[in-house]
Amino acid sequence: MPDGQDRSLDVRRFDTGAVLFLEGSASDVMYVIQEGSVRLSRTIDGESTTLAQLVGGDIVGGVGLVRQQAHSTTATALEPTACLAIDSAALEQMVTEDSEIAIRFIKDLANRVASTSELLSMLGQRDSRTRVCMALIRHAEMSGEQTGEGVWIRKRLGDIAGEIAVADTEMGEISKVLLRRQLLRVKRDGILVPDVSRLYEFVKNSDV
């Protein structure tokens, strides 16, 4: 790290379960995870709902710091975690002096805004089946692997259910409908979506 930045940056360590920041609190620093992992959650209908799990190299709290707005989520250490804390002055200096850091930060921020806003939109849907379909679409489009059979999602249905606060029993019933309509296939290590456009149509169709 170049001289002159050390005064503004510091490494902070968090024990398992420690809170980096609370939903609604002021955004005065962002964190870059050096080791460990962090859960981002938001209170929805009175319950804490997981939005993302971040690991080494990921940025936590960047959106709030840039926008100078209160945090929209709560960040909690899932294990002993070390983070580089960066305030607004240090961030401005880093972005100005290092184009590589600037590009990486902008890309990460853009992806985070898109994924979090889309997930919050899903969670706002009261119909569980719609939320499940939108979650599958999101994963297929953002991180799915295109194959000759369709788009491969390296997640289990239980993982999807946890992300969008759908009970396992309800997820089981929804998946039966999707399987029967051949909108997805479930394998031991992931989910195959044969045609993402058909999932879109399924969501849009009012009499499903």
Show the helix and strand layout.
Blueprint: E1 9-14, E2 19-21, E3 29-35, E4 38-44, E5 47-54, E6 59-60, H1 62-67, E7 74-77, E8 81-87, H2 88-97, H3 99-123, H4 128-143, E9 145-147, E10 150-153, H5 157-163, H6 168-180, E11 185-187, E12 190-193, H7 196-204
Antiparallel strand pairs: 1-8, 2-7, 3-6, 3-8, 4-5, 4-7, 9-10, 10-12, 11-12
- How far apart the termini lie comes to 56 Å
CATH superfamily of the largest domain: Jelly Rolls
CATH architectural designation of the largest domain:
Sandwich
Strand runs, count: 12
**Class based on secondary structure composition and strand pairing:** alpha+beta
Which geometry do the CA atoms define?
Answer: elongated
Please estimate the helix content: 40-55%
- CATH class wording of the largest domain: Mainly Beta
- Spans where pLDDT lies below 50 across 5 or more residues: 1-8
Strand order of the largest sheet: 1-8-3-6
- β-strand percent reads 25-35%
- Whole-number tally of structural domains: 2
- By CATH, the topology of the largest domain is Jelly Rolls
Report the order of strands and helices: EEEEEEHEEHHHEEHHEEH
